Amino acid sequence: MNNSSKTSPNTFVPGPGGETCVARASWDTAGIGVAALATGLQPARTALGHLSNWALPLALAAVVATAAWSMPGELSRDGRIVLAVLGLSIIGWTMTRIGDTAVAVAAVVGLSASGVIESADLYRSLGHELIWLLLAAFLIAAVLRASGVIEPLLMSVAGQNVSVSRLFYALTGAIAATALIIPSTSARAALLLPVFLTLTAQARSRPLTRALALLFPTVILLSASGSLIGAGAHILAADVMREKGGGAVNYVGWLVLAMPFALISSFAATAIILHTFLSPALRARRVRLSNVDALPKDWRTRAILVTVATTLVLWLTQTTHGLGMGLVALAGAFVMLKLAGPVIKSKDAFKAVEVELIVFLAATFTIADAMMKADVDDWLAASFKAAVPSLAEGNSAVVIAAVAIIALLSHLVITSRTARAAVLLPSIVLPLANQGADVTTLVLVTIAGTGLCQTMAVSAKPVAIFANAPVPTYSSADLARLSAFLLPMMFVLIMAFALFVWPHF
Predict the structure, then answer these.
(1) How far is CA 5 from CA 8, 13, 129, 341, 478, in A?
(2) Greater confidence, 116 or 25?
(3) Using the 8-state DSSP alphabet, how is residue 240 labeled?
């Protein structure tokens, strides 16, 4: 008889010291069963997690939709639908992970399906001159990036042998100047990241690298408010100003209104960074830049720069020649694409256009128009006045302070700058403008306030881009420390401009 050494799972075998124990196989089988049970429950746990994430937004959406539909007063059927759609859009932008553009498009589809607007309204929004201006500006930026002219230009402005303080202030002016021609803050951040990497390689100082990393996104974000194409939010703001009687704002008009604030806030932020993150010895240290690429001197590069300068001059002199901003931008983009043929193909330049941003802007144009056609802004204005009588025209300082605080803190809830404008402009600025407040001042207060978004890396794409640079940059504590200084500075500047400068325009 063959004595096999194998034992069945139920066999009792002598244990150490003569005691009996269940064979290891029994315990292994039980362990496998428990593991299988846990694995089987994992999808259920995941589903419960997703359900809990969606529970509050869905419950709040149901409450908002019900409340909007049963709202007392003289609000029309279309007005109730628009109010509900606006409330649901705000929930989608602030409390869910659904993309901002998807939420805006869903809102337009809902308004169209309910008969409040026609499908053609969205198509007309896509034909808005400012939409085409933004599209052409993206093409111009793509050519500038491919031709490699930005880095040498900024380096020449910074100087080859300067103190750290002078370097920072020179960079501030140069970065602010890029807002005049390059659209959106994320495009400028991607374009300027190589400049930052070149500077850090030359500086070879951890504190200096951190300060430079904070400088670039901060100036990009604050200086953006000075240019009409500096951020998608400005396109929305200009449309609101036009619709509410603030006048059609062209390129130079926005520049006159907003660039002084943008420059003062940018240079003030630079001073804060220098004195908060660098010692006096480091601020006085001289930086010698070497091995910096020179600006190409071939005829093609010169022609591209001349085209950019001509486009900018035509924007600034629009009231003289009468050509539309979009038409000038498209002509400039066409010429630059032809000139840059050897370095970038047209199809690659068009890939650089942020189509999602353009669709988002067109959709939010349509939502804002629906609000005004259905008199939702008038109804909200009357409701504001009834609920808070102190928000009367005579208390403009109180109104401005409230709007400024909301705009400055909105980045803690809404991570997209354009989405912040899409929420604040129709829900707060339009009603207050109908109540008698100056629409131009309120719009500029909102735009200036939404430019502050350095508290967290997720609050703005430029901050995230420099946080994830190939070299170590800054920590969350550094961002919080910087914001603690920027917040009061921005509030004081906004109040000063809103009370003493912008009303005169």
Answers:
(1) 10, 11, 86, 79, 66
(2) 116
(3) H
Question: How many other CB atoms are there within 10 angstroms of residue 336's CB atom?
Answer: 26
394 has a pLDDT exceeding 60: no
Tokens of 63: 């409450």
- Total residue length of the chain: 505
Question: Do residues 103 and 89 lie in contact, with contact meaning Cβ atoms separated by under 8 Å?
Answer: yes
Is the pTM above the cut of 0.90? no
Of the candidates 368, 387, 355, 389, the residue with the CA atom closest to the CA atom of residue 443 = 368
| Residue 8: CB atoms within 10 Å | 8
CA distance 353 to 349: 7
Reported as a single tens digit per residue, the pLDDT across 173-228 is: 999 999 999 888 888 998 899 889 888 887 778 899 999 999 999 999 999 999 99
Q: Residue 476 half-sphere exposure, CB side, CA atoms within 13 Å?
A: 3
- Contacts (Cβ under 8 Å, ≥6 apart) of 308: 140, 144, 181, 332, 336
Instruction: Please say whether the beta carbons of 318 and 250 come within 8 A.
Output: yes
Q: Which helix (H) or strand (E) holds 14?
A: strand 12-14
Supply the Cα-derived Rg of the chain in whole angstroms.
Answer: 29
Q: Would you give the distance in Å from CA 387 to the centre of its chain?
A: 32
10 Å CB burial of residue 99 (0-12, 13-18, 19+) is middle
Mean predicted lDDT score pLDDT of the chain: 82
Q: pLDDT, tens digit, for every residue of 64-98? A: 888 878 776 677 888 899 889 988 988 888 888 88
121-159 pLDDT, tens digit each: 888 888 888 889 889 999 998 998 888 888 788 777 766
**Contact by Cβ (8 Å): 410, 450:** yes
